[in-house]
Design brief:
This protein is α/β, with parallel strands linked by helices. It has ten helices and 20 strands.
Length: 437
């Protein structure tokens, strides 16, 4: 069973997962932890005054975050860690209230490639961002987290659907609307106003707009006779966000280091705060202007001297579906981080970046694995290839192996969190990113 420092780390992870039901909550929780460690908040709308040895962070859309530490010497390279804050799920439609059989239901949109079947019969809370108007006309954005079961998506009994276990398709428009309240006239807005009073004491506001999603309120749990597993919602990819923060806070601070956690990876990253957007480039440009060479050429030199480790969970070898993996590339849970490779550039790993990460793992005494999807199956992707394309930084894709990716409840190994964090910390401490190191 996990013991000592490892147990403390797992407790912090479980708390982070449980209190981060949306990208906005995850970003806020990461920012709070960084601030407690001495990181200074920057605003994109203001001038920056950066100092050698300083530690800073900045957010965009309140759902993406970049944190960085500057070396005390000249900034020659950045050791970058990338992750994403979003997960697949059920997002409310703007005019969500609908009625059937005497019940108030809420219409949803499916966000990302969600595995829909596990959403049935779950205890669902509601969380996200709400924009309100005060009595004096002032608009304010507030986070809402109704962290108790207020809705469910009930299954249809097997007696009424004898084909339910035969691969029947699920229609998200007609079959996934959560049941909220037994009523034929109630609407969502008064409920939101009541929840805002409960959470924020906002009793004199008008709800103007919102971005809300349902989530499973079952807390994360350690599973297995020896607690070898952690089961939770949003392991993909909050586990990587957590490991990145842990590594950044634990590193020696001698090197230039940066952590970026983007929103919208699960829907393609094409947004102002996504990996395909300009967020990271904007920060790198301002870094170069403040503490770099201050020219376009020096920015290119900084980027090409740096390395991005894109962290996003990998598919672990499944004991019930062994045929879904290439025989030589089935990552095992609790056997270390996985280097992800794809000849079609769905992952950004090259032999050069892969070799460097293997060497980092060797120095950190961390086992390392490799994943390549079967040649007769499609391959997912990550922020790695997008970041490499948009920024030009040498990149590789890694992640801890997990089961049930994109389910409402996913499973990963407790040892792999330690392995990944240790490898990332060693990466941030590495004096040189060149092949001579």
């Amino acid at each position: 069973m996990p013991q000592g420092e490892h147990t403390d780390t797992l407790d912090r992870l479980r708390d982070f997962l449980h209190t981060s039901p949306t990208p906005w909550h995850a970003t806020r929780n990461m920012a709070r932890r960084l601030e407690r460690a001495g990181f200074q908040r920057l605003e994109e709308t203001r001038d920056w005054e950066l100092a050698a040895g300083g530690r800073y962070y900045v957010t965009r859309n309140d759902s993406s975050i970049i944190a960085f530490q500057l070396p005390r010497s000249a900034l020659a390279a950045l050791r970058m860690i990338g992750a994403h804050t979003d997960s697949p799920g059920l997002h409310l439609k703007p005019n969500a209230s609908q009625y059937a059989a005497g019940w108030l239901q809420l219409g949803v949109q499916v966000y990302g490639g969600a595995l829909l079947a596990p959403w049935f019969d779950r205890d669902l809370g509601l969380a996200g961002r709400v924009h309100v108007r005060h009595g004096d006309g002032r608009l304010e954005s507030v986070l809402l987290n109704v962290d108790r079961p207020v809705a469910t998506v009930p299954s249809l009994a097997i007696h009424l659907d004898r084909e339910a276990n035969s691969g029947r398709a699920i229609n998200p428009q007609t079959q996934m609307a959560p049941v909220l309240l037994q009523s034929e006239s109630a609407t969502l807005t008064p409920l939101l106003q009541a929840w805002l009073v409960q959470e924020h004491g906002l009793d004199d506001v008008e709800v103007v707009d919102f971005e809300l999603s349902f989530y499973d309120v079952q807390p994360p749990a350690l599973v297995g006779v020896k607690q070898e597993l952690i089961a939770s919602a949003r392991l993909d990819n909050l586990l990587s966000c957590f490991a990145g923060v842990e590594a950044l806070l634990e590193c020696d601070g001698e090197q230039g280091a940066l952590l970026v956690a983007n929103d919208h990876e699960e829907v393609g990253s094409a947004s102002a705060c996504g990996a395909q957007g300009p967020f990271l480039n904007d920060v790198l440009r301002r870094l170069n202007e403040q503490v770099g060479g201050k020219t376009e050429a020096s920015l290119v030199q900084l980027i090409q001297s740096s390395l991005m480790v894109s962290c996003d969970n990998a598919h672990a070898l499944h004991p019930n579906f062994l045929d879904k993996h290439d025989e030589q590339h089935g990552p095992a849970i609790n056997q270390g981080p996985v280097i992800k490779v794809n000849a079609s550039q769905r992952y950004a790993t090259s032999s050069a970046t892969g070799a460097l990460f293997r060497d980092i793992c060797r120095e950190a005494a961390v086992p390392v694995q490799a994943f390549v999807t079967r040649a007769d199956m499609g391959c997912g992707s990550t922020i790695g290839p997008i970041t490499a394309t948009e920024v030009g930084v040498p990149t590789l894709d890694v992640g801890v192996p997990q089961w049930a990716m994109h389910s409402v409840r996913e499973t990963a190994g407790t040892e792999d969190l330690t392995y990944l964090t240790r490898a990332l910390r060693s990466f941030l401490n590495r004096p040189s990113l060149g092949p001579e190191a």
